[in-house]
Amino acid sequence: MGRNLFTKVKVRYYFELALPAVLTLIYGYMMWRNVLSPLYLEPIPNCVLLFVLFGSMMLMYSLLCGTIEILLKRIRPDNHLLSWKYMLLYSLIAALIVGVLAGVLEIIYEIQFKGDVLRKPDELVYVIDDSGSMYGNDPQNYRLSSVSEINNNLRNGARVGLVRFDDKILFDSSIQEMDAKYKNYINGNLNVISGGGTDIDIALKRAVMMYQEEEAGVRGGNSKILLLTDGMSNIPVDESYILSECNKLGVSIDVISLGSKTDSGFIRRITKGSGGHICKVPSDYYINAAYKILIGERVNRCLLVPVILVDDHRVLLGIMQFIFLSLIGIAMHLLVTYMFMYKPYINRQLKHFWKLVLIASLGMVISDSSFFWIFIMIALFLIPLFDGRVIKKKRQFKLPRLQLFKEREDTGMVDQGLYFDSGFDVDDGIEVSDGFYL
């Protein structure tokens, strides 16, 4: 009976702890995926996005924890209940600390390296994979809808071509100067007609042929082929021919690698051999950002966005991301621990929570900040490990005892003799004796 009661109390106790974490987890994930991440590369600074996300998560988590403390009337270390005034004050301070910390670390993470600003192309041929796997990897067709937006940002006089392919050429348009008429023509042919296999060889050869067909002297100073693919070619790619022709024509090949099933060896060879770059994109949400980076806009990094441009600084940025996210997670754990928990029970939290924070940060780096790992990271940042908080309740018990001397209350004198005390009550720590003399 006693053991079952203890188990029920403990289950209820951990449910009360987990409830704020679960609600904050759902809020934080939906806030980032649906509200804040779409603002990436917008005029709003990324440090503001991180301040809002982690600051509001900390505020929500601490408010929920504090509300439960108050409603369940748990005793605090000074034997007083937590008040609404102090709970609100603690929560606001914690939110401000975490938000500012996240914003400052984001600013440091965005420090620019040499090569972070790419030159906008004078000529560009989009080579877009429309194979059947794109239905799963890019269900919203961002690879197509982003093209018209990108074209609006190209410099005046820029020349553009387009190749769409699966296991054959679905649509191609030769390189022409981007004016309103040609832009409408390109946009009108971005309807989705995908569904076949993947033949990267035929697509790249068609893009090379477009450059070969140009008149001498038309080509600008910066010519690119931009390949977006989510898989491996079903047909072997004639790399030596493609690289040889690109080097003759002065054309570099950039690649947007979507998902985890692309041929990384092939991609590295054709980009390195032609002087191009790779954008590795784990989620379709960041296709637009990859386009913008590769057509020459500033590399705008963010702690919760993949290190999109694969370059010499990738290892350093991964280390920075790991350290900075760990600091944010540690701050969130420590603040809520010291705000609401008994000092004797903080030790268990301090002993274990850092392991979860490090796992969360490392997972984010390895997964290139995929949305799945953002969800896991938030969960590990919030998971409660507290144990043993005392719920206020009255206990009464009797302990018989013998007393040889008893001070008389009326005279203050000590009477000799044997005094039998039938026991004492403990009511919130106050002893009440009940006995008689022999």
Short description:
By secondary structure, the chain is of the alpha/beta class. The chain is 49% helix and 17% strand.
Which strands sit side by side, in order, in the main sheet? 3-2-1-4-5-6-7
- Terminal Cα span: 40 Å
The profile of the biggest β sheet is: 7 strands, mixed
Mean pLDDT: 80
Taken as a percent bin, the fraction of beta residues is 15-25%
The secondary-structure element order is: HHHEHHEEHHEHEHEHEHHHEEE
Structural class: alpha/beta
Query: What value does the Rg take, in angstroms?
Result: 33 Å
Show unreliable segments.
391-409, 418-438
Number of strands: 10
Task: Count the DSSP helices.
Answer: 13
Choose one word for the global shape. Answer: elongated
The percent range for helix content is 40-55%
Task: Write a structural description.
- This protein has 438 residues and is α/β, with parallel strands linked by helices.
- The protein has helices spanning 2-36, 46-71, 84-109, 134-137, 142-152, 180-188, 200-212, 239-249, 264-274, 287-294, 314-340, 346-366, 371-382, and strands at residues 123-129, 159-165, 169-177, 223-229, 251-258, 278-281, 309-310, 401-407, 414-427, 430-437.
- Strands 3-2-1-4-5-6-7 form a seven-stranded mixed beta sheet, sandwiched between helices.
- Helix 1 (2-36) runs antiparallel to helix 2, helix 11 runs antiparallel to helix 12 (346-366) and helix 11 (314-340) packs parallel to helix 13 (371-382).
- The radius of gyration is 33 Å and the shape is elongated.
- The two termini are 40 Å apart.
